[in-house]
Amino acid sequence: MNIKWNAKGYTKDFQFVHQYGEDVLNLLDIEKGIKVLDLGCGNGALTKKISDMGADVIGMDASGEMLEIARKNYPELTFIQDDAVNFILNEQVDAIFSNAVFHWIDNQDGLLESVYNGLKINGSLVCEFGGYGCTETIHSFLQKAFEARGLEYKRTFYFPTIDEYTPILRKHGLQTVYAALFDRKTALIGEDGMKNWIEMFVIQPFKGLDDSLKNEIIDEAVKSLKPILYQNGVWYADYVRIRLKARKI
């Protein structure tokens, strides 16, 4: 993961992340007692949903702060701290589920190798993450604000097309059985929804900048974005998602 989360703020103001993830659960072939890994489980909300569906589920995340919340909220479940690009499970699982994680991972080869090794033969990877064009309106305005000040806007996320990603899956022994790329305009919470979104999800570009310059750039971007992404009193982020299912062959 190339981002460190504000775990409490994420849980409080960005519940839509796991709420939208509930729809992805429909791609899981849940039978009572199957073993599932929730990879990048965050605060554990979807791990709990998977458990309620009848699976024997483990939540895994790199963030100790996120896992602290997960363990507090769902003490009956098992959560472990590990890195998505080099984890090793004690026992292979029937399915690996992941929501809103893969686009934050630089080493996709390491990630998918770990996924392959963690799955039983014919086991499923079910995931959703940012796809090509995701939040491009926001990032374009931020990039312009950076460049106007002679600064580099570092894009530390990975938003592929289906045609780009499925060959990577295949290279790692994962056969795609379903894939979709779709727009999903997403409502943000409150009058400061866009400002809060930028502060939560756009971290790396602002590293090393003093707070006054950071706030100046964010305020400028928010002002520029308002005619486009603020509608009827609600801020929206222009999300694009890839949703897919693949099997270990």
UniProtKB/TrEMBL annotation:
It comes from Clostridium beijerinckii (Clostridium MP). Keywords: Methyltransferase, Transferase. Gene3D superfamilies: Vaccinia Virus protein VP39. InterPro entries: Methyltransf_11, SAM-dependent_MTases_sf. This is Methyltransferase domain-containing protein. GO terms for molecular function: S-adenosylmethionine-dependent methyltransferase activity. SUPFAM superfamilies: S-adenosyl-L-methionine-dependent methyltransferases. Residues 37-127 form the Methyltransferase type domain.
